[in-house]
Amino acid sequence: MARYPRERNYRNIILIAIALICLVAGVILLLIDPIKNIKRQAVMDDMMESIAEGSQAVFVVKSNGNEVNGEDFEDYDFGAEELTGNTASYEDIVAELPDEVILTALGRIKIPSVNIDIPLWNDATIVTLRYGAGRLKNTADPGQEGNMVILGHRMRAEGKLFHSLGEVKIGDDVIITAMDGTVYTYRVDQILEAVKPEDLDFYADINYGEGKQVTLVTCTPLGVATHRLLVIGHLI
Known about the structure:
Layout: H1 4-53, E1 58-62, H2 80-84, H3 90-95, E2 100-111, E3 116-121, E4 133-135, E5 146-151, E6 173-178, E7 183-195, H4 200-203, E8 212-220, E9 227-235
């Protein structure tokens, strides 16, 4: 009987220790994504500064760093794979990546009405989309006749990548500044709010639409990603 209080104290200490461990683990899990976002944003800010100055267009990054939260389940096959119906898994795509990836900037894409101003890459892949938006291969270049398709992640964090694309309105401007300083302004004249992923190949073709067109593509609804939001504009 004399040892019972001591045993109860030991048990309480153990329970408190377990509770503290769970609390610390929970805090760490909550901080992982914000820390990743801060680190990725710092890298992207440095890239953006060089792109804006026109001093650098080619960057080398590690393929296994600064992953975007949710890129493994967005049903977003990162470019041409999505359009050709390739069902390669996220794990298969990542496994085939080289240790380092070269990113080549077309310039920057800016939508003043919703405070988007990010790098525009010359490809839309799993890695390029971590650091900005990407022009889908085999679609038009800025200012070129035909449809230029630009993909970007719909981040949950406000102000990140294409987070605010859903706030764009008809009549807003999409401004693309090329590396040589040439400015192309597209005016939004159509918004498709819920395109099924399996229908995206129809809209993501260089011959879709008319004239000098841009089609911005991101996931919707925010945080769910069952459909695609398309914002379409024409050069003015």
